[in-house]
Amino acid sequence: MTDLSFPKLPGALPDKRQVAASFSRAAASYDSVAELQRDVGSQLLGHLAPEFVPQRWLDLGCGTGHFSRALGGQFPGSHGVALDIAEGMLNHARPLGGATHFVAGDAERLPLQDSTCDLIFSSLAVQWCADFDSVLGEACRVLKPGGIFAFASLCTGTLFELRDSWREVDGMVHVNRFREFGVYQQLCAASGLRVVSLQNLPHVLHYPDVRSLTHELKALGAHNLNPGRPGGLTGRARIMGLIGAYEQFRQARGLPATYQVVYAVLEKPL
């Protein structure tokens, strides 16, 4: 069974209100465990051409504002908008600065005027958007001609070790499901934006034990948000089953957790 065959399947991705609430609750703990998020966002920044200097940028799904501050530092004198659907994240980010404006908004319906941004930067946010076609359409609308939409997302195969270990315990949905890379390729090609680069690269983190991984996912607000997830507390027997199953993946550095990261740079034609 594939994780997700097409982005508009009803019920395939979590309700965005649940996503917003989960990330709002995680705002205070997020930065302490966001190693993957910092690494991926830094790599995404490196995908921008060195001669590209935007005057107006949007940090789409800004979270705690780490990369809003990075963009503000990299492009001094620029005008930046930090946008997130989670009010708790914005409340955390706003006092730290980096952007000119902090806005609550939805990537599928951006509260911005047409042709107003030179750069839309989005790191590990759009995987939560069920209608990615609308995300691309909004990016195309808001970008100026020649503007860039640079995003990093997650695709099928992310956390496969955790998913496969849970499958040995029960048949329920315990791990967030994401689009196939082929769907990203299809939608980007049909978006009206020129695909400058689009690639899928694995990023592997290691943990001493399963509890360290699941604690980190909860602290990030990225624990299981799928429809069909089990309700209530997980029993001790099932937890022990999960631990035993995951141990089969152990490497010298610890228990691996693989993230399949999509990196894309798209340009609005002149």
From TrEMBL:
Pfam families registered for this protein in UniProt: Methyltransf_11
Documented EC number(s): 2.1.1.197
Domain (Methyltransferase type): residue spans on this chain: 58-151
Residue ranges the record marks as coiled coil: none
InterPro entries, A to Z: BioC (IPR011814), Malonyl-ACP_OMT (IPR050602), Methyltransf_11 (IPR013216), SAM-dependent_MTases_sf (IPR029063)
Catalytic activity: malonyl-[ACP] + S-adenosyl-L-methionine = malonyl-[ACP] methyl ester + S-adenosyl-L-homocysteine
Cited HAMAP family: BioC
Functional note: Converts the free carboxyl group of a malonyl-thioester to its methyl ester by transfer of a methyl group from S-adenosyl-L-methionine (SAM). It allows to synthesize pimeloyl-ACP via the fatty acid synthetic pathway.
UniProt similarity note: Belongs to the methyltransferase superfamily.
Stated name of the protein: Malonyl-[acyl-carrier protein] O-methyltransferase
Source species of the chain: Pseudomonas laurylsulfativorans
High-level lineage: Bacteria, Pseudomonadati, Pseudomonadota, Gammaproteobacteria, Pseudomonadales
